[in-house]
Amino acid sequence: MSSTRTTKMVKTKDGINWYVEQEGSGPDVVLVPDGLGECEMFSIPMSIIASQGFRVTTFDMPGMSRSENAPPETYDNITGHKLAGYVDTLLEELNIPVASVWGCSSGATTVLAMCAAYPERVRNAMPHELPIVNPPGLDDLFSKDSETISNAMAAISRELSGGVEKWDALGTVVHARLHRNYVRWAHGYPRTIPASAPIKSEDLHKRPVDWTIGGSTPAAAFFQNIVIGTKEDKILKKKAARHFTILLFYDNDQNYIQSNQLKMSKQPEKIDVHSHYLPATYREQCKANGHGSPDGFPFLPEWSIDEHLKMADNMNITKSYLSISSPGVHLVRGNDELARKLCRECNQVGADAKKQHPDRFGFWASLPLPDVQGSLDELTYAFDELKADGIVVETNSYGYYLGHKEFEPVWAELNRRHAIIFIHPTSGCTMTNSACPLPEYPNPIFEFFFDTTRAVINLFYSGTIARYPNITYIIPHAGGCLAPLIERFSLFGRAIPNLPVDQSVNPEFVKEKLTTNFYFDMAGTPWPDQLPALMNFIDKEHVLYGSDYPFTSAEYVHRLAGAMEVHMPKVFETEHEREMAYKGNAETMFRNQAAARAGSTSK
Q1: Active-site residue, 129 included
Q2: 243 belongs to the catalytic site
Q3: Among residues 3, 105, 320, 326, which one is catalytic?
Q4: Domains of the chain in sequence order
């Protein structure tokens, strides 16, 4: 697959006018040049990487070659931290929130400084030929060493489907490379470069790091000649020929010492409770009935089983639970016949995907609400014949929220079945202009969050939560705007006289139910602030992973996963807790539901 390379000048807020080259589309990869500061070194690998489904960005360093308006420091006398700051500013201007960052030689130093100072920008780092020893005449091999290109590609691919474990001996590297002045060769003669600000080894642990060395450089030669002398030489030689994921550095006496091999570990396995499917019939009916741009979203995304599985493989999603998104299956007010027919067809497509790939897909069956009888008929068929894993409902149906009294028979049957209900936001009722006060913006940007919150509060205020305790609810997007309103709605609903609020509502009851009957997914942008706020009210065991694919494109699923990797340790402190949020909590939820259902039917 060929792609077009574009060039442009980009001026950043620090006054630097950067020469930038970009090629391809997909998850972002950024290439940081070496001491010569010119991106020409990446000419060949740039196209190779782009052809594999990535958007590749590189640039001339500040004040070098085609970049203009250099910073006060010359490039030969600038620290890695300063360069990292300039590069971060450029990526912000280019709207690259997170990327795999590959740097060569002194560019590798910049990459490590980015890991320490700007971890939210770095999905994973690939420092190549870290210039711990940089003798004169060291040839750069990027443009002619296909093995080096393959190594970096392997590192990128491993991170997108895996990563590396942390290694505790980085402090020696940092001390040897960054904590003192050193001499390097640039433009054919030696330059003395000031030391960067100290970088703590734990700072580098903020992001996964793949250390690579070239196929015929002095470091690689050392590895081949010295390291391949151990009893594991056959294994090491095989790995060396493919990946070179070995870190080589020297101690304070400038003697080479060898690290342990960096252990590779896959990106955590995930169960995706929030992903969507768009059957051909559904797309046709949406377009035919005024929903070609649903909720102000500019288009209906394409979807296929193959593309969904490709995305899931890249993200290490072991199982995806499919659902129809907004506007749901009731597309025309009053036309229950169309809604019932479309609902049945969509549910059958979801069931077929599960039947074809039982280990990879589950599905939440749709209901044709506000048609109550049609919904009762469909949920019976969906559970008994199609073996649906649960039900998806929109936050409202033509302004009727989920706790509406006419929906009582539906909730009673779902309660009898100990059902899992995935609640998905839709547009607020648009019978009045005030329901859509900012129509120029797509509703998913913020209106969806408001309607999710309305739906949850309505379930409590209507008494639905109290009357039907066997139902498990999954709330998307970390609860929307729920967290800052929990105290307020649970207290004021009963404090103001004569409001139609169920007697069960009080802060203790609401908080107890949020930690037992409710789960919250991490789809969208719950980091760095939204989910931590919600965690004041829920347990870690009630957080689930969600991608929101394909309304969130595969590219942005990758980008959001990068932000998730950075911020999750702030809430989920141990690896076990993170693994549970990604997968284990969903498994527990399904086990508990199965046990409750079995206990109910045995009585």
Answers
A1: yes
A2: yes
A3: 105
A4: 6-133+192-232 (3.40.50.1820), 270-601 (3.20.20.140)
